[in-house]
Amino acid sequence: MTTLLIVRHGETEENVSRILQGHLPGKLTARGIQQAEALARALKGETFDVLLTSDLARAHRTASIIGKVLALKPIEDSRLRERDWGELTGRAIDSLKGEPFPDNVETVGAMTNRAEAMLDYIYNMYRGMRVLCVTHGLFARTLQAAYYGVRLREIEPMQNGETRQLLLPRPTHKQASPAEDANASAN
């Protein structure tokens, strides 16, 4: 059994401003740094074999703060990135109400495929280990939706600095259709 602890990065200036960050680096706020430090202290007594992180700055900074306390060097993996919002990247979430997504926005189906591949990779690469994984709000939900075989909207959003645990391999389930989640967004 592989234990996967998913972490959503600390709060960013863009989270506060309700901006679609996508592949932007993002800048942790003072509160975001405090969230990462508090999480590091909470995890201090636990043992992890590896610390994976998105290569985007906001997740990597969170992972570095946690890794320093746990004596783990973060390993970057671009598959843990947030949804690619294409030309919507950097836009205010509230300004998008009712606006159709352009073709260059990563689809929920593509995110789901990436999440499934990531879960399989973690299980196969780190079988029987304890894996700490720092990622982003919407992609963390996508990982969970893929794991449970449910629609993205059925997974409760994670707060900045929140953790959720999954045990791999994944349960056997019928795959949910991502079509109904096409306009899912993250803060």
Q: Give me the strand/helix succession.
A: EHHEHEHEHE
Q: What structural class do the secondary elements suggest?
A: alpha/beta
How would you name the oligomeric state of the polypeptide chains in this document?
single chain
Number of helices, where a helix is a run of at least 4 consecutive DSSP H or I residues: 5
Rounded to an integer, what's the Rg over CA atoms?
16 Å
Measured between the Cα atoms of the first and last residue, the distance is 32 Å
General form: globular
Helix fraction by DSSP (H/I, runs of at least 4):
25-40%
Kindly estimate the percentage of residues that lie in beta strands according to DSSP.
5-15%
Q: What does the average pLDDT come to?
A: 93
Question: Which spans of ≥5 residues are poorly predicted at pLDDT below 50?
Answer: 176-183
Strands of the widest sheet, in order across it, are 3-2-4-1-5
User: What is the makeup of the main sheet?
Assistant: 5 strands, mixed
Number of strands: 5
Keywords:
globular; 5 strands; 5-stranded mixed beta sheet; 33% helix; alpha/beta; 13% strand; 187 residues
Can you describe this structure?
With 187 residues, the protein is α/β, with parallel strands linked by helices. Helix content is 33%, strand content 13%. It is globular and about 45 Å long.
